[in-house]
Amino acid sequence: MLRRSAQARLAFLRRIFPVVTVVGPRQCGKTTLVRGELARWRYLDLEKPRDWNILTADPEGFLADNPRQVIIDEAQRYPELFPLMRHVVDEDRRPGRFVLTGSAQPRMIRQAGESLAGRVGILELTPFTARELSTRLPWLAQRWFWGGFPPLYQLKSAAAKREWLESYISTFLSQDIPGLGVTVAAPRLRRFWTMAAHMHGQILSLSDLARAMDLSYHTIAHYLDILEGAFVIRRLKPYHANVGKRLVKSPKLYIRDTGILHCLLGLRGPADLEGWPGIGASFEGLVVEELAVRMAAVGGGIFYWRTQAGAEADLILEVGRRRLAVEIKLGQGLDPRRLAGLKSCMADLRLKRGVVLYGGSERLKLGHGIEAIPWRDVERGGKLWPGVC
Alpha carbon of 333 to those of 293, 338, 357, 373: distances in Å? Predict the structure, then answer.
């Protein structure tokens, strides 16, 4: 089993909270993680009728008979569990008693927050990151095009990987979304998801999406909430600061997994990236997701910066009072004259250091406090920001 970065976080939360909830998209490895780390614990999978019946026939009795070291998989399927657990936990606040997993972030976190406030730690698990795959270079080489879902790395051919991704999308739309209580027809949501893929890396305009889909503004916002809550899109927020300039206030839209992105857009293999107009946005999304995971691990924030006049930095990373401006360039060559947006951002925010992540192989000092760092070094586990990520 590939070592996951979340293993240490899971152990840390179990030392603090009676209940730990592991959330993330289906097939990202939640069950593998918790069962691998907690092999001796009692395990129930609420997608299996037998385990469902064991728990729901007499939930209070089950919890009383199993007071600690229980894993409950797909716990969001049984909302009544959370208030019941509150009473059990209040009688015994020892940490590390229960681990729950679920694929529906908004519902599960809301239920846990309302019923288990102060008693539960939340761990978000993602598909494989580049850093996690850095110990297996053949797998790392596949990460950009095929994405990070673990089952893909057991498949040998491009045809098999395409089939898996297409099946994942279809199952998500036809089974997982209805399982969240959403009544949107699968073909309509598929069309919307594909439309969102065409806007990958762009500033989100709800009105443009609404016109393209011939739907209302509020319906589009609802669809976005569904997809974001199921971990398949990311709305990257703009950075706000009082700098005396008008700043863009709308988020940027990304499909979180690049394998899903490429499948939705009809790309069939890595060779299709060459000459594809969306290659730069695809690479940017890969970097954004990787750094978002790293920033979440250190309690930091990730944003983009753009003024109404058009000056832009791809990312602002923030931890406490420390900030770093980042520009993302796919190419192997760099033209310092094309870094005006990064320099403007650094001046506005009074930042002494900026970074250009690029496709070359050398670390370069570009002047004005800007350093060029090869993405290859970062994806293989190297530090982008010393002491942080």
Answer: 27, 11, 11, 12
- Spatial distance between the Cα atoms of 126 and 295, rounded to a whole number of angstroms: 13
Q: How does 151-186 read in b/e, with b if 16+ C-beta sit within 10 Å?
A: ebbeeeeeeebbebbeebbeebbeebbeebebebeb
- Surface-to-core class of residue 236, CB atoms within 10 Å of its CB (0-12 exposed, 13-18 middle, 19+ buried): buried
pLDDT in the model for residue 178: 81
Q: Dihedral sign, CA of 122, 131, 126, 235?
A: positive
CATH architecture type of domain 131-379: Orthogonal Bundle (1.10)
Q: Residue 229: what pLDDT?
A: 87
Contacting residues for 203 by C-beta, under 8 A, at least 6 apart: 248, 250, 251, 252, 253, 306
Q: Where in the chain is the domain with CATH 1.10.10.10?
A: 131-379
With cut-offs at 50, 70 and 90, classify the pLDDT of residue 124: very high
The whole-number pLDDT of residue 105 equals 59
* Level-2 CATH architecture, domain 6-124: 3-Layer(aba) Sandwich (3.40)
CB atoms within 10 A of CB 54: 14
Q: Which residue has the higher pLDDT, 388 or 73?
A: 73
* Tokens 């940017």 -> residue: 284
Residues of the chain with CATH 3.40.50.300: 6-124
pLDDT for position 139? 96
Supply the Cα-derived Rg of the chain in whole angstroms: 22
175-181-182 Cα angle (round to 5) = 75
Q: How far is CA 308 from CA 82, 103, 244, 305, 386, in A?
A: 46, 37, 12, 10, 32
